[in-house]
Amino acid sequence: NGRLVETGNIESKREASRESVYNFENRKRDHIQHSLNESNQSTGLAGLEKVSLIHEALPELDFSEVKVDSYSQPLRMVTRTPFLVSSMTAGHAEGLDLNQILAEACFERGWIMGVGSQRRQLMDRKMDHEWKLIRRTAPQLVLLGNLGLSQVIHTSTSEIQRLVDSLEAVAMIVHTNPLQECLQPEGTPMFKGGIEALSRICKELSVPVILKETGCGFSESTLRRLIEVGVAAVDISGLGGTHWGRIEGCRSDSASLQHEAAQTFWNWGVSTVESLRLATQLKPDYEVWASGGVRSGLDSAKLIAMGARIVGIAQPILKAALDGKGELLRVMEKFEFELKTAMFCTGCKNIEELQNKGIWQWVQR
């Protein structure tokens, strides 16, 4: 019904969190540049080196029989791969060309595409047209919308539905990023009412809602609370990949508190593997997705074997896309081939077997 929560003070909060289009575009450009810097990657902290898959010397199948198509309950469909291009960029001039390349490649390879934050569309309705252009070139592309929780809290359901409709999205990602908002010079660390807002849009939006962290993972208590909220899936997005706290520290003035604090919180977060372990042991009624430091098809296979239904990849895809569609398609094909190789060498002919055969083990804890 498009109602607002705490309508009396919503507008003042929205004004406080609003920034100019010019500043917004510059911030999004900064994010691309800094995310490519390896020092802003929490490499080696995802926990994937602690997990191994059990080799099967007699797989009893041909490589050509290995299939990676995957059914996702929230998306209500079978996708050709279990791969998601994690939400990366939107809302600036260069973003249109980049998202066009990503959309075309995802359509060709059968990957899901999560768009970057649609916050700019709340300020500028002309942005709706850009997504319509992209949708026209890839009509069957599986697209996921995206908006930050601190914006969802202060935005009507009808406005969020408009964002969904502009993409013809099959689901809406809500990203939560408390550390980033604290350290970002333009940050909006206003998360009070977040659970209520999530519950509201889960009930009122026309599509399923997926909650996603942005590289800091989830605790067991939060994952447990989400069972009652109504989200269709949780992307645990753990520590191990792009670290937005580091990025905002780089962006902030060297004399600022944010810059200093970013050093203190350099490795803040719950690792991808630990977040996934906590989520799957709860056996929640929501689907569990995983991202954060996924750098190969083997990493993806480990996460699927541990219980992830969909695996998200961001920085390697962004890096490839900036080198053109040809390089992007090559990298995507490499991820798929490595996943199939891991499945073949563990005797798994499909994703269901990879998830359910118990073919992973701890190397160390």
Note down, in words, how this protein is organized.
- The radius of gyration is 20 Å and the shape is globular.
- It has helices at 7-17, 21-35, 93-109, 119-123, 127-137, 149-152, 157-167, 178-183, 194-204, 220-225, 244-251, 257-264, 272-282, 297-305, 315-321, 325-344, 351-356; strands spanning 51-53, 70-72, 77-79, 83-85, 112-114, 143-148, 171-176, 209-213, 233-235, 287-291, 311-313, 360-362.
- It has a single domain, classed as TIM Barrel (Alpha-Beta Barrel).
- It contains 17 helices and 12 strands.
- Helix 3 (93-109) runs parallel beside helix 16.
- It has 365 residues and is of the alpha/beta class.
- The chain has an 8-stranded parallel β-barrel with strand order 4-5-6-7-8-9-10-11, surrounded by 6 helices.
- Mean pLDDT is 90; it is low at 1-17.
- The relative contact order is 0.18.
Would you summarize the structure shown here?
With 365 residues, this protein is of the alpha/beta class.
Ordered list of secondary-structure elements with their pairings:
Layout: H1 7-17, H2 21-35, E1 51-53, E2 70-72, E3 77-79, E4 83-85, H3 93-109, E5 112-114, H4 119-123, H5 127-137, E6 143-148, H6 149-152, H7 157-167, E7 171-176, H8 178-183, H9 194-204, E8 209-213, H10 220-225, E9 233-235, H11 244-251, H12 257-264, H13 272-282, E10 287-291, H14 297-305, E11 311-313, H15 315-321, H16 325-344, H17 351-356, E12 360-362
Parallel strand pairs: 4-5, 4-11, 5-6, 6-7, 7-8, 8-9, 9-10, 10-11
Antiparallel strand pairs: 1-12, 2-3
Helix pairs in contact: 2-11, 3-5, 3-16, 11-12, 14-16, 15-16
